[in-house]
Amino acid sequence: MNSPARPAPEPRSAYARFEPLSTRWMDNDIYGHLNNVVYYSLFDTAVNQYLIGAGALDIHAGTVIGLVVETQCNYFDALAFPQRIEAGLRVAKQGASSVRYEIALFAEGAELCAARGHFVHVYVDRQTRRPVSALPPEFVRALQTLQKD
Alpha-carbon distance 47 to 43, whole Å? Predict the structure, then answer.
């Protein structure tokens, strides 16, 4: 039986856009680095920060919201407070109502990521919580920017 290739850190060039993020004092765990759950929070923050800034997501009054249905993360190097982080973003797959975002966390200025993973969001109607039949045009425009050749 062949085992799958071991995940490896990726370079900056693998990502379409970068969002700056800050670590917080409370993010460190007893071992002096970011606790593993913080990486997921940073992934979510980077995606939503981008979507809000691009005018695609209105977290207070928008008719469409994203629900996370799948997450995954691989860790390669420690990050810690106080440290500035740059989140690389790309869209790996876009469906009618779902998007697979791939995110990598880089120490500021680092060439290789310290962690990388993905989120799959299903976009649903805010009221009914049922998947939308198609992503709104502002989402489609924002996602095009995250497409990597």
Answer: 6
